[in-house]
């Protein structure tokens, strides 16, 4: 499964034994794969500052998860022709996301643990905000280009009634620059080809004999040219309609056709040029955002553990990976049973601190006697 539970319990002898019982039961029952989750010793600061950080980290956690989801979706959209290879590009520090989470190590170079917690959180927040700003501008530019290209491509699709004709017709199909003559394009249903050939010259006066030519076909019919005198256009259109022949309004403009073709070529070239740099940026910054997200989870475990279990800082964090979705209910029951005694410890801690700790006033269904956070990577599949 691509789901992880990040929990912590006090690090005293009794609770370390409880963790061992948890590991034994979950392994024996094949409920989850458990590993220690190492979190550095941070500067705790004041209890008030931790309460404030608890709220801030909760919001930052939601923002980071939303951001990496959007970035993953952007990778899917950019790799439209190679969606089977998307997961190869959603990595963290060059490894798959599950491996990164299960082998997590705090990055001291990026986020020095000796700094005040407020500074570490601020660094993470600014980093993610900058990635989001860049994501918006880069994807907006690419999506505008992609939309313009799709709109042009749509014009070359569809049936003969709606699609552009600039890539079908040629200059040789028309009588051009004539004061008296004009070439029209007529859509004729396939069953009516013979009727068209027999009747088009007599649909109106002043139709040029033997001037029709089939220049394109689709499933429903064909596109024919016919040349006639300008003065009988309206009469010809009326008679054609009566016979279920449709005159397609089209004016051959060589400059406009050339411009449209050049625009398509330019957009294709621009999209190709932007594809590589954008995908590389997404890969690098998805990795950065994901790494930042897991660091935020670690910070949340630290802050909530100190608030829940008190000072001095002494807790053990564990990462659990449930083996199956069907195991999660049983796993929750095991954890609640093993750590049920922490309810009294937590209540006493709140009372002693004389503060309301966010996250503890929950319903019975949502309440965890241990510190708990969820990491769901399936959202990125």
Condensed summary:
This protein has helices at residues 13-28, 47-78, 86-89, 97-102, 117-155, 193-199, 233-242, 254-309, 328-338, 342-353; strands at 3-10, 32-36, 91-92, 95-96, 181-189, 213-217, 221-229, 246-248, 315-322, 371-376. The protein has 381 residues and is of the alpha+beta class. The strands form 3 sheets. The chain has a 4-stranded antiparallel beta sheet, sandwiched between helices. Strands 6-7-5-8 form a 4-stranded antiparallel beta sheet.
What does it look like?
The structure is a single chain. This protein is α+β, with helices and mostly antiparallel strands. It has helices spanning 13-28, 47-78, 86-89, 97-102, 117-155, 193-199, 233-242, 254-309, 328-338, 342-353, and strands at residues 3-10, 32-36, 91-92, 95-96, 181-189, 213-217, 221-229, 246-248, 315-322, 371-376. Strand 6 (213-217) and strand 7 form a beta hairpin.
User: Helix tally?
Assistant: 10
What's the main sheet like? 4 strands, antiparallel
Helical content class = 40-55%
Quickly give the structural class: alpha+beta
Q: Segments where pLDDT lies below 50 for 5+ residues?
A: 345-365
What's the Cα radius of gyration?
34 Å
- Work out the oligomeric state of the chains in this entry: single chain
**Widest β-sheet, arrangement of strands:** 2-9-1-10
Average pLDDT: 88
Strand content: 5-15%
């Amino acid at each position: 499964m691509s789901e992880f539970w990040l929990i912590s319990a006090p690090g005293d002898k009794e609770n370390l034994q409880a963790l061992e019982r948890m590991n034994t039961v979950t392994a024996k029952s094949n409920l989850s794969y458990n590993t220690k989750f190492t979190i550095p010793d941070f500067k705790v600061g004041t209890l008030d500052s931790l309460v404030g950080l608890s709220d801030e980290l909760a919001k930052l956690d939601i923002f980071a998860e939303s951001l990496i989801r959007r970035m993953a979706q952007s990778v899917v959209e950019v790799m439209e022709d190679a969606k089977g290879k998307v997961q190869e590009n959603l990595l963290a520090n060059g490894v798959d996301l599950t491996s990164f989470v299960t082998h997590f190590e705090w990055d001291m170079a990026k986020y020095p643990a000796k700094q005040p917690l407020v500074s570490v959180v601020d660094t993470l927040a600014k980093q993610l905000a900058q990635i989001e700003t860049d994501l918006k501008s880069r994807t907006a530019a690419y999506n505008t280009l992609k939309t313009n290209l799709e709109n042009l491509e749509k014009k070359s699709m569809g049936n003969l009634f709606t699609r552009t004709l600039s890539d079908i017709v040629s200059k040789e199909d028309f009588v051009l620059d004539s004061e008296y003559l004009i070439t029209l394009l007529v859509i004729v249903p396939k069953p009516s080809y013979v009727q068209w050939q027999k009747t088009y010259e007599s649909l109106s006066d002043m139709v040029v004999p033997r001037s029709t030519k089939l220049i394109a076909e689709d499933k429903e019919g064909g596109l024919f040219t016919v040349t006639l005198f300008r003065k009988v256009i309206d009469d010809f259109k009326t008679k054609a309609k009566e016979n279920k022949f449709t005159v397609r309004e089209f004016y051959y403009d060589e400059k406009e056709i050339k411009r449209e073709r050049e625009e398509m070529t330019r957009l294709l070239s621009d999209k190709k040029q932007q594809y590589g740099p954008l995908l590389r940026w997404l890969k690098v910054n998805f990795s950065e955002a994901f790494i930042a997200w897991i660091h935020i989870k670690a910070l949340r475990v630290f802050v909530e553990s100190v608030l829940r279990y008190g000072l001095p800082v002494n807790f053990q964090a564990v990462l659990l990976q449930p083996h199956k979705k069907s195991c999660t209910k049983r796993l929750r029951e095991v954890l609640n049973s093993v750590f049920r005694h922490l309810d009294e410890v937590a209540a006493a801690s709140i009372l002693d601190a004389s503060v309301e700790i966010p996250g503890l006033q929950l319903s019975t269904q949502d309440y965890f006697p241990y510190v708990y956070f969820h990491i769901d990577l399936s959202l990125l599949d």
